[in-house]
Amino acid sequence: MWLPLIGLLLGILIGLLSPVEIPLGYVKYTAIAILAAIDTILGGVRAQLEARFDLTIFLSGFIINAGFAALLAGLGDLLGLDLYLGAVIAFSIRILDNVGFIRRDLLDVYFRRVKRARDVTG
Amino acid sequence: MTVARPVVRPRLPWWQVGLTVVLAVGGYFAATQIRNELEIREHLRIPSTRLNELAIRLQKQERRRASLEAAVGELRHQVAVLEREAAERQSGVARMNREVSELRALAGFIPLEGSGVVVEMRDSPRPIEPGDDPNKTILHYTDIHAVINDLWAAGAEAIAINGERIITRTGLTCVGTTILCNTKRIAPPYAIVAIGAPARLLAHLQRPAGPAEILRAFGFPLRLQGLERVTVPAYRGTTQFTIVRPAGEGP
Question: Is B219 strand, coil or helix?
Answer without folding.
Answer: coil
